[in-house]
Every structure is written in structure tokens, then in C-alpha cells.
Please model this.
Amino acid sequence: MNIEYDPKKIGPVIRRAMHEAIAVIREQAATFIAESKTHYDGVREDIVTTADRAAQEVYITHFTKYLPGFGLVGEEDGLRRPCTIPHDDVYITIDPLDGTKAFARGQSHGVGTMVGVVRGGKIVAGFVGDVNTGEIYGFDPENPVPIRTRFGVDQVLASDTSMPLARRYVMSNTSPTEFSRQVRKILFKHSQGGLCKDVEVLGGSYGTFFARLWKGEVAILLLDPAHSTPWDEVPVLGISKALGVVYFRINPETLEVHDCDPAIPHAPVPTPYITVAVLPGYAGEVENFLRGMICE
Model:
């Protein structure tokens, strides 16, 4: 069999696999079995469920059959398969169940599934599925403009940045008390010297967390230091870059602010900085605020 890279197949294959993975996860919502596993930091306890493994197997089956030769990098059970397409370097990242603890708690939000494709060191496709709503966000080589598929209808993923930040929301993935006094100013209400109307705190899926930004439901994301992984970063970073999302990093010790172009991790690595992700229309205002805030 002649194995080659075919960009036309990537989007349709991933979408079919993602729909099936979402169905499999939903089927296990009341019957899953969970077991503990060690977190990337080697200290904390994490969990993996039968739903994680079943969804990952769906992806492996689809990609092995319909995208033969592509490398595979998955979150569960050390999934690593090298690319076997001659003279090429392309691999698929798989996060079968993003927000496993949220799923295990029975949350009706914050549960996702994610797939990304990297070729020659560049993200060429990224997809995030919301397990609870069935929505899929994604782009691929044939459709480079990110699409939101909701209730079976495709719409270009876009957000309106004409509304002033004073009327928008900022969202954090952890309690505001986790940040220093200076950094917490990002989360202050506009009436109290902050940037936005108010703050939301939301845990769970990294992908559906970012989807709130992509849709324009919030204008700014604030993320605490954590770990960066291929299966989290490739799809999320791919969609964010395609939409022009701007990233800033804050050193929690020195409070220095840098704009950045996040790299693609090849394995779980610590991210010791605070991350701020911003819709492009607000980047200049946010950067000025961050640099002024740190100087106070």
C-alpha cells in the first residue's frame, strides 16, 4: 500500500472519529470505572477512566485505518507511534477525554476531547469537541479558517471586539487567591481599577476553557503555572493562532511581562509562568495594563 500524506482526508477523518469518541464517552457517563494515576509533576494524584481509554481506542482505530503512517501521540498509556510515511514527519496528538475529573464529577460543562496534527513542526489541524454540547471547533489544511459546528451547522469561529473591555469578562482557571496581589489586579472589576466588567472562574477541560475565548464569551484568559503537554497544546494553540489570539507570560517571581509565541511541547513540561491569552482586538490595551500593573 502506498502510504502518503493526504491533506484532504485529515478534517473529515478527525471529525468522524471525534463524533464517535463523544458518543463513547457519553455512553460511559454512568458506568465508567476510574483508577488513580500519577500527575505529570510526579507528586499529585490524577485519575484515568474507562471512558478515557475507550475514546482513545476509537481515535487509534480511525487514524490507523484512514490516516495510515501518521505518528500518534496520546495522553493515555504512553501512546507513542512514530510516523512511517516516507520522507515526512507528521503526527496526531490525542487527548481522548479532556477534563477527566470534571467528567467523573458529572459536570455538565468542562468536559472535552481534543485532536491536533503537526507536520514538519507546524500545527496543520486542531479540533476540540465539547462532550456535553456536541459542539466541535476546528480547522484543517483544506479549511484553515476555524469553524464552530453547533447543532449540525457550521459557522466561522469569530468574536466581536468592538465592545469595550469594561463591558467584557475575564476568566481564570483557578481561584484569584492563587495569584499575587499585583497579578490579581487583572481580575478586578473595571470599577475597581481592573480591565473588565467582572471575572469568572472555570475549571475542567483546557479546550472548552479556551473555546469561551474563541467564541468571544470572554475577552481575556488568565492561567496559573502548570504543565504543558502535546495533546493539550497542539489543538488549542493551533486554533488560537489561527484566530490571532495573543499570548503574554508573566514571571510570578519578578513579575516581568513578555509577549510570546508558545512552542509546541513534545512531552509534558512544566510551565512556571502565568499565561494571559487575549482576543487580538484587545491585545494593546491589555499589554499596557499588564506593564503598568507590574510597575505599581
Summary: The mean pLDDT is 94. The chain has seven helices and 18 strands. Residues 7-156 form a domain with the Fructose-1,6-Bisphosphatase; Chain A, domain 1 fold (CATH 3.30.540.10). The chain has two domains: 7-156, 165-295.
